[in-house]
Write a structure and sequence with these properties.
- This protein has 21 helices and 11 strands.
- By secondary structure, the chain is α+β, with helices and mostly antiparallel strands.
- The chain is globular, with a radius of gyration of 32 Å.
- The N and C termini lie far apart (98 Å).
């Protein structure tokens, strides 16, 4: 398996994203107040269904807020009300709802289903507007580009998708940004930045979560997602990565080919994805579909992208995954791509393998060496805390594990050991949450660790096994020989050092001597009476 006991040489972590000031503080204040009011009106801030579970002093506040709930707050289930509130609040809130919708194991199946409509079932904008956006972005009439351009089939927070057909008969998906979405995202992020600053100032417990860095990481990802040209490049890159995985563990995910003639700043054209989206109830009922293997493939494909290639699809919720028999996946929506450097990839593999092998001391050591835990704490004490979290979970079916309780324990441990949020790992953590949620929606008893083991084991054998050590030694030797060859070809030139003796001018020597004699004479004359 290779030596995992050697100390990792941790690379300097990337600096956190630069903090962007709140551009319009007054507007951001009003927007935050408006957000809170929308949640209250929808009875989504402290839902009446959970009020009995709150501490006594919080229940009075919740009952007071219930007095202001409107008609929309009295109808429907909590997930439906929260989903409608997020729709009203705009793209930034919808993104948060999409993450929550993946965790049926924490919030309940019905709650997740109610939020699931945020993934691709939002109200679409008219097809006439979409055609104008296509013509404006690509500079050509729609009829020149497509033989047919259909009504929208999916509408998400930032864009909607239309079926279309090229002149050669191929069916494609044309993704068009919503009109004015850039302005709404900018306003939402401004309010989030203000909320992050308030959390830092007034909520000490939130400071170690680095709320400002978290907001800026999400802001950077959303900004990139608003340029379809960058998404096209990401789809092409991840398509190549997924193609390299063919025949490997986790090589069961593909990406549609990019139609570059149909790509502009606000428009993206991809080949039509085969199969059905996982949001469609008919998807798991397709003939010949192995749902258990499909759940494994979701996890293995993601881990293979992250560990083997350092680039992964960072928005893997059900609305972005299509499936077909026997257990094949096609990913869409490449607006957010996560990236890991060599050091972060090794940390991830070591931590996962430590949990799989139940070596909590190794996990603790990697956390300290990576700088995730401050050095003043004890490795042994941290390993003991990890054992308390891991042992009740490893080897058990998902239905036997309370994810809410597990997350609560993890949060307590990170607080106990002063662990701060690492901005460079935000997208990784977000995607792992989404992937695990998707897998457990497919198979409620899915074992994440069993699915991850083959991918992690293969990576460790390849990167840390005997062959890897020989390869690293050969690379170091090659680098040394190359440096010596350059030194032999361009030896350092001998440098002549000239030492010049500097002498003071004669007039300066005479003046200094005369001044010294006069001072000595004055001193003798002043002391003469005492001497005689």
């Amino acid at each position: 398996m290779g030596d995992l006991t050697t100390r990792i040489n941790p690379a300097t972590p990337p600096p956190p994203p630069a903090t962007v000031p709140v551009r319009h503080p007054v507007s951001a204040w009003w927007r935050l107040i408006g957000w809170a009011w929308v949640l209250v009106r929808h009875d989504a801030l402290a839902p009446r269904e959970v009020t009995p579970l709150l501490p006594v002093w919080v229940r009075w506040i919740a009952h007071f807020l219930h007095l202001f709930a409107g008609r929309e707050g009295r109808e429907g289930r909590p997930g439906e009300r929260l989903g409608k509130a997020f729709e009203h609040l705009g793209p930034v809130a919808i993104k948060l709802g999409q993450v929550l919708a993946t965790r049926a194991d924490i919030f309940g199946v019905q709650f997740a289903r109610d939020l699931g409509r945020l993934k691709d079932a939002l109200p679409p904008f008219p097809i006439e507007q979409a055609r104008k956006e296509v013509e404006r972005s690509l500079g050509r009439p729609v009829e020149v580009l497509f033989r047919d351009f259909g009504e929208p089939v999916a509408a998400a927070s930032l864009a909607q998708a239309h079926p279309a057909w090229l002149a050669d008969g191929r069916k494609v998906a044309v993704k068009v940004l919503r009109p004015g979405v850039e302005r709404r995202v900018a306003q939402g992020l401004d309010a989030m930045r203000l909320a992050a600053r308030m959390a830092v100032r007034f909520v000490p417990l939130a400071r170690r979560l680095e709320p400002s860095a978290f907001v800026e990481t999400i802001a950077r990802a959303l900004t990139l997602e608003l340029d379809m040209r960058l998404e096209a490049a990401a789809a092409s890159e991840l398509g190549e990565i997924m193609g390299k995985q063919a025949g490997e563990l986790g090589g069961h995910m593909t990406a549609p080919a990019v139609i570059w003639d149909g790509v502009g700043k606000r428009v993206l054209t991809l080949e039509w994805a085969p199969g059905l989206p996982l949001t469609d109830p008919r998807a798991i009922e397709q003939p010949g579909l192995d749902v258990n293997t499909l759940a494994d493939n979701v996890v293995r494909s993601f881990l293979s992208q992250a560990l083997d290639h350092g680039a992964f699809h960072a928005d893997l919720h059900e609305g972005n995954l299509f499936c077909h028999a026997p257990a094949e996946l096609t990913a869409i929506d490449f607006g957010i791509v996560g990236r890991l450097g060599p050091a972060e990839r090794r940390y991830l593999a070591e931590i996962l393998w430590g949990f799989i092998s139940r070596d909590y001391e190794r996990i603790a050591r990697v956390h300290f060496e990576a700088g995730y835990v401050p050095p003043e704490h004890s490795v042994e004490a941290f390993a003991q805390a990890l054992r308390a979290v891991g042992e009740p979970v490893i080897g058990k079916q998902a239905s036997q594990v309370s994810m809410g309780r597990l997350l609560g324990q993890l949060f307590e441990i990170t607080d106990l050991f002063d662990m701060h949020l690492r901005p460079e790992l935000i997208l990784l953590q977000k995607t792992m949450v989404s992937v695990e949620g998707v897998a457990r929606r497919l198979n409620p008893d899915h074992d994440l660790w069993a699915a991850a083991q083959p991918v992690v084991e293969r990576w460790i054998r390849r990167e840390l096994g005997p062959q890897a050590q020989i390869r690293d030694a050969i690379d170091e030797l090659r680098t040394t020989l190359r440096a010596l060859s350059k030194l032999a070809q361009n030896p350092p030139q001998a440098q002549t050092v000239i030492i010049r003796e500097s002498r003071a001018p004669t007039w300066m020597i005479v003046c200094v001597t005369a001044a010294t004699v006069a001072a000595a004479a004055a001193l003798v004359m002043s002391l003469w009476p005492a001497i005689v």
